[in-house]
Amino acid sequence: MPTVFLSPSNSTFPRRYKEEVEIVFSAIDCLLNRELAIYCSSEITSGLRLFQALRRQNVKTASELVGQMGEAWFDANIKGVNVNAANEFARFVRDGLSDNTMVITPAPFDAAGWDQDQYLFFWETLIRTRIKSVWFNRDWQFSNGCTFEFAVAQDAGHPTFDHRGEVLDRVAGLGAIGSAIERLEADGFDTAKLRKNFERVRAARMDPAEDFRSRR
After folding, report:
1. DSSP per residue, 155-195
2. Domain regions of the chain by residue span
């Protein structure tokens, strides 16, 4: 174990959610130093890997899967595998850059006590304020979180790219999400969150060039 000079006590700091968010952003700003980063969106707790597991176990929800297989199994075979894939994707994007742009992946971040909406609010704020482009990992269209982040990126006017680095515009994104919804609904899965994000993408502010093309 490495030597350390200080060993602070395990103090308790009761905080409101807003205060926790501000603390995390202050740490991120120490790294970014006013520069904008690239955000790599990947499935974590939802997505294609989850739906494949649900299909194999003949259940319809993640909670049913956890009840059947156990939380440890879920963490190892769904979340853990997704986290590794997300980290690998971020490394791939970073290694392909020709400059020193920072790359951010949501995979390692863990905020005890936060619910899904609190995580999504945090990532939405990050994307809107500290990100210049968003890349989407393979099969992103099956993930509630990734499709939400695609809607945010579109509304914020950020360039969006697929896992190969090719442009992923609004039309292509809507097509991908729509196809995912049809595929999942054919198997009887609930797609309410995907549908909500599909509508968010449709309602997002349109790029002037895209608006011009749509009128022609």
Report:
1. HHT--EE-TTS-B--HHHHHHHHHHHHHHHHHTT---HHHH
2. 17-205
